[in-house]
Amino acid sequence: MQFNFIANRFCAGSSGATLPMIDPSTGEVFDEIQRSDARDIDEAVRAARNCMDSVWCKLGGVERGRLLMRLSQIVLEHADELALIEQRDCGKPTKQAKADVAALARYFEFYAGACDKLHGETIPYQDGYSVFTWREPHGVTGHIIPWNYPMQIFGRSVGGALAAGNVCVVKPAEDACLSLLRVAQLAAEAGFPAGAINIVTGYGHEVGDALARHPGIEHISFTGSPGVGTLIQQVAAERHCPVTLELGGKSPQIVFVDADLDEAIPVIINAIVQNAGQTCSAGSRLLVDELVYEPLLQRLGLAFEKLRVGPAAMNLDLGPLIRQSQQQRVWDFLSDAQVAGIPMVAQGRVVDEAPQGGYYQAPTLLRDVPIAHRLAQEEVFGPVLAAMSFRDEDEAVELANATRFGLVAGVWTRDGGRQFRMAKRIRSGQVFINNYGAGGGVELPFGGVKSSGYGREKGFEALYGFTTLKTVALRHG
Ligand code: NAD
Q: Most buried of 1, 183, 323, 456, CB within 10 angstroms?
């Protein structure tokens, strides 16, 4: 049985109700979490406020940085334990679970170094004045986290907020929250004062909604689906609470005729099969110059056929999807493709050892997907790559921008002029040239345009979102 973590103590939720935790590799229940409600959020917000007013507001950047650095080290010391928790909770192959722990530690390390480097400016003004700005924390920040990368998203969101001088109330996803409860406990061991990091588990429409509505929450960082992002924005608007929205994507990987295919192919595949395609920035659309469309699809098809899916502990190319409804969602997309006559180029294989109850899906490569079809427009959030061809650069740009999303794009070309033109013309938060994802990019500002959200996390840029700017005008004559 798992408990909420409030004011550095594990405690039961007020309702006394629990939710089952299911292992996606087997479909079996292996643990329980608290089904918390608004009363628990209230308690967590009070603990956070007390921490802010009594201890946290007195710490300088250097002291916050030392705490974050210590937490980074403690996370690394517990890397195997955390990876095992995440592997079981989310169905992540061992290598992905380990990569997530490493990223978590790296976020804390990065933000540890940033704490004492965030400052305002002096502004030249009229004679007799001195004007300067202070970067002040919002105060008690709320963090709503999805299930696909609990540790990475906690690291970037909570790490940035703490570095900027805020305290945090976190609502992890009901499907995957065990690693975060452990990390919060490790933070207490690292010396974080009671109330700096609080975790309350439960359903989104219950406890997530209560967090978003709580008048004591002074900034909300939401990572999740566009639909829930809209709800958060509406609720926050009622009290004019600032919000950062990290939503979904339908990100294009664009391959020109002069691309280095040997370099591109493994990256293209990884960008859609990593975490079984359950990645907001998954490269789920493949736009290919018609001159290289057939040979590229042939090579990709052969590579897809070799991909293997199985239980997380087998550490194959892909683990299971998170839950049965996610598996059903992917099946629905694939059956729509069949009805529309969209050709399948190739599929990987689920290994015989995979338990019947697990939520497995073979990675699938589709071709000639019409741009208007939902497979080219909507987030599948599974390992399905939708390929289509283009005639020239203008059409590539048109197709790349022809969805409601704009999170990430990848461009493969050796033409220097085209690299710049494409980077300028694509509407998205990040553009990668001759790579994709850049190894996670803790230092690189991340976020979307259009329905992919707004505000930025990761990098130093995130600290501006986690602070508010105060201008002080001193008239001294
Ligand atoms: P989701 O929106 O269903 O849930 C995300 C979180 O919101 C969960 O903690 C959930 O409990 C909570 N929630 C649900 N309903 C709520 C409500 N009414 N009020 C408050 N909180 C509520 O998303 P998901 O299915 O967990 O995650 C998948 C989605 O997240 C995809 O769309 C994916 O692209 C997106 N995502 C985006 C990023 C990014 O950085 N842009 C990163 C990861 C995932």
A: 183
Q: How far is the centre of ligand 1, averaged over its atoms, from the C-alpha of 194 (Å)?
A: 27
Whether residue 440 is predicted with pLDDT greater than 90 in this model: the reply is no
Phi, psi of 381 (to 5 degrees): 60, 45
Same domain, 418 and 459: no
Structural domain containing residue 73: 4-247+454-474
Q: Identify whether 40 is part of a domain.
A: yes
Q: What is the mean pLDDT of residues 97-106?
A: 98
Which run of H or E residues covers position 39?
helix 38-54
H or E element in which residue 464 lies:
helix 461-465
**What would the two tokens of residue 351 be?**
């290994």
**Distance in angstroms (rounded) separating the CA atoms of residues 360 and 344:** 18
The CATH code of the domain that includes 40 is 3.40.605.10
Q: For residue 173, which atom of ligand 1 is closest to its CA?
A: 9
Could you tell me if 45 and 94 lie in one domain?
yes
Q: What is the pLDDT of residues 452-469, one digit of tens each?
A: 999 999 999 999 999 999
Count of the separate structural domains present in the chain: 2
The CA 219 to ligand 1 mean position distance, Å, reads 17
Q: Distance from the CA of 131 to the center of ligand 1, in angstroms?
A: 41
Backbone φ, ψ for residue 429 (5° rounding): -75, -30
Per DSSP, what are the bridge partners of residue 289? 390
Instruction: Catalogue the active-site residues.
Output: 246, 280
Please give the model's pTM, rounded to 2 decimal places: 0.97
- The ligand 1 site (C-beta within 6 Å) comprises 144-149, 153, 171, 173-174, 204-205, 208-209, 212, 223-225, 228, 231-232, 246-249, 280, 379, 381, 407, 453
**Looking at the domain assignment, is residue 449 inside a domain?**
no
Q: Which of 200, 228, 461 to mutate to test the pocket of ligand 1 (most atoms within 8 A of CB)?
A: 228
The preferred substitution site among 223, 234, 457 for testing ligand 1, maximizing ligand atoms within 8 Å of CB, is: 223
Instruction: Give percent above pLDDT 90 in the chain.
Output: 99
Residue 446 resides in a domain? no
Report the interhelical angle of 178-190 vs 150-163 (nearest 10°): 40
Expressed in angstroms, the distance from the first to the final Cα of the chain is 65
Eight-class DSSP state of 378? S
Looking at the structure, tell me whether residues 257 and 317 fall in a common domain.
yes
